[in-house]
Structure formats: C-alpha cells, structure tokens
Amino acid sequence: MKTPLLHFNNKGIYCKQADVYLDPWKPVKNAIISHGHADHSRWGHQNYITQHTNVPIIKHRLGDINVSGVDWGETFSINGVIFSLHPAGHIIGSAQIRVEYKGEVWVFTGDYKTEDDGIALPYEVVKCHTFITECTFGLPAFKWQPQQEVFHDINTWWQQNRDDGNTSVLFGYSLGKAQRLLKHLDTSIGKIYTHAAIENMNEVIREITPLPDTHRITRETKKEELKGNMVIAPPSAHGSPWIKKMVPYVTGSASGWMTFRGARRRRAIDKGFVLSDHCDWQGLLSSIKATGAEKIICTHGYTDIFSRFLIEQGYDARTEETQFEEENAEEKKNNSQEKTPKNEV
C-alpha cells in the first residue's frame, strides 16, 4: 500500500520523505509552522521554518529558537519534496503549507479565513489533490456578516457607552483578533487602552505593519483616564482583579462563538459581536471547491458533521484527530449541546 505524502501520527502531520512535520504538537527535529498561535507553534523543536513575517512573532512567544523565514510562494526542497507557503488570511503571518512530491500536491491550511481583514495578507487559493482543512466553524449556523457591518456595530456601541459615561472593555485574543480590532476602531470616538499582554504583542506587530496609537494600562493608570474610552483585553482578563479598575464599564466580546445566544450568557458578556478569524460554513465550502481537490481531510472543529456533508457532495472526505485547539475550545464544547434547526445540519 502506498504511503501517503502526509500522514498523522502522535507528534503531528508528518512528511516521511522529507522528515518534516507541519505544526507538530510534540518536539521534533524539523518543523514547518503555519502561524503564531500557541496551538500551532509550540516550543521544543530543533529547527523551525515559517513565513518571514511570522518569525518575530514566534520568537516573541517561544524565545531563543532556531528559525528561518521564507517569502510567500518561495519554494524550498527537502529530499526531493518541494514546499512553499501561501497566505491563509487567518492572522498576520499565517500561511498555508503546500507540499509537492512527484507531481502529487497536498495543501495544509493551518487556520484560515477568506475575508480580507485589512491586516493579514488575504487568503490565496492553492490548487491541490488533497486539502487538509480546519473546520472550526463547520456548521451551516455559522454565517459571517461583512466585517464593515460588524465594526459599525462595535463603534456605535463604543460611542453609546461613552455617551453614558462608561468605559468599553472589548475582549479579543492578543495575537490576531486584538490587532484586527485596533485596525478598524474609530479613534475619533476616544482613546484606545490595552492590556499588557496585548500591548506586548502590538510592539512586535508594529515592526511589521502600522497600528493605531494605543496606551498601555499600568498600575499608574487612573480609572478616570479610562472613562468613555476603549480598552482591549484578552478574554482571560474578564472577571480578574485587573478589570476592577475599569468601573463603570460595559463588556463586549468579538468572536465567532457569539453566533450562539448561550455563549454570551455563559461568559457574562454584556454585548457579543460575531467576528471570527476563521472561515464560516460557506467560506469552507467555497475554498474547498476552488482548490479542485478530490480528497479532503477535516481537522479540529465540527469534523464529523462537516466531513459527512462533503461525502454527500461527492468528495472523498475523512477526519483526523489533532491537538490543535481552536480559539475557545471550551465554548465549542458548550455550544455543541445547543439545539440546531434540522434544516441547518
């Protein structure tokens, strides 16, 4: 039986011919990294290869590592296997990994989205025979609004909070979501303050692309300074002693999980904005069709439901277990218990 070009084992996605792993979750000799989120770029590998934009990001997160960067579309060969990295549109520096050997082409998406968010290089269709796709939001219930509509709602919310004398506290992940929020906030409304974890990442990102001015919150920051302004913080800050400085405040969360009514209630969030750095249902389907791939491997997310639908559409589809944990995996677990209309499954 022919050994597949890429296969999944207990360390990650492995290319035996090149002795290289893609986004491995256990320490290995050679790793090609799709992007900087912690579930895809882990500490402990001997050698890292990633898109050059992602180099300072993973070095900031992982410390002193042996990493080399390549340009978009630049090919490099390892034992006859040809690799290249192509924009995934997920967050800044995020890449799809194209693998070719003897005319056979596989593409591993990492995490990706098809909407141009104005900060990450937009997603690029890469033709292939086998497509390894995430399906974090692989349910028909997930259907994103254009981001300009979402940001209109966010800025309107901020203005109303300011008029009411409240501080707006908006939660988003420190890498990716936070910078996307910053890029599209209306700074004419007020100042933007940031949690230290987000500001530390902003300092790295500013070396790559411009961001609006922000103000780091420190021990010396007075709550009077924050009143009426915007605070961007990681979700972990919610309910912590740190947030008490914001009183009086109103909380908001920007996440694809805000699609579900129960998500906001469980997280005790005042306002939810549906804004994701992953594909929605239609984005996944259109991306798969555009690749021309006949074989689809579904990872992390609603894998069983999504792969079953693909099989019904005539694809050779299957699922594979990974140790990638999409943003707020616990939220997915909770939401899976909510009822979905039968015509949406």
TrEMBL record:
Residues 330-345 have a biased composition (Basic and acidic residues). One of its GO terms (molecular function) is exonuclease activity. It comes from the Bacteria. Residues 320-345 are annotated as: Disordered. InterPro entries: MBL, RibonucZ/Hydroxyglut_hydro, Xnuc_lig_assoc. PANTHER family: BLL1145 PROTEIN (PTHR11203:SF49), CLEAVAGE AND POLYADENYLATION SPECIFICITY FACTOR FAMILY MEMBER (PTHR11203). This is Ligase-associated DNA damage response exonuclease. It comes from Mesonia ostreae. The lineage of its organism: Bacteria, Pseudomonadati, Bacteroidota, Flavobacteriia, Flavobacteriales.
